[in-house]
Amino acid sequence: MAIYEDERLAVSARYISSSRELEITLDDGSRHLIPVDRLEMVESAPDAYVPIAKPSDEQLGDVKVWGGGSAIYWESIEQVFRVDELMAGIYGRPAWMKNISVSV
User: Fold this and answer.
1) For residues 73 and 79, is the Cβ–Cβ distance under 8 A?
2) Distance, CA of 87 to CA of 79 (rounded, Å)
């Protein structure tokens, strides 16, 4: 996995159900909105990663800053996203990124 040079940390995260967006506030005071449907949410199976069922607003509302601000975590659906990757526009594995860039 690549290391990105963005060293900013998240200080808060919240889910906005009306727009299905994740709002992240960083330690420099900036706020960023990411559509949660662009995030690759998967679970690990023996031979592959398998997409999880579309999370409910209630599940998405339970988002936390994790790892000292280096990650965003949804415990109930067991999903973790690194803040540096999110800020770099990386929302999943390369195949996922290729798929969502084609569908835009």
Assistant:
1) yes
2) 17
Beta-ladder partners of 42: 51
Residue 64, amino acid: K
CB-facing half-sphere around the CA of 2: CA atoms within 13 A: 12
Q: Where are the domains of the chain?
A: 10-102
CA end-to-end distance (rounded Å), the chain: 25
**Sole residue written with tokens 């900036």:** 30
- Cβ neighbours of residue 5 closer than 8 Å, sequence gap 6 or more: 84
Gyration radius from the chain CA atoms: 13
d(CA 8, CA 29): 10
For the domain spanning 10-102, the CATH number is 3.30.2020.40
pLDDT 10s digits, 51-98: 999 999 999 999 999 999 999 999 999 999 999 999 999 999 999 999
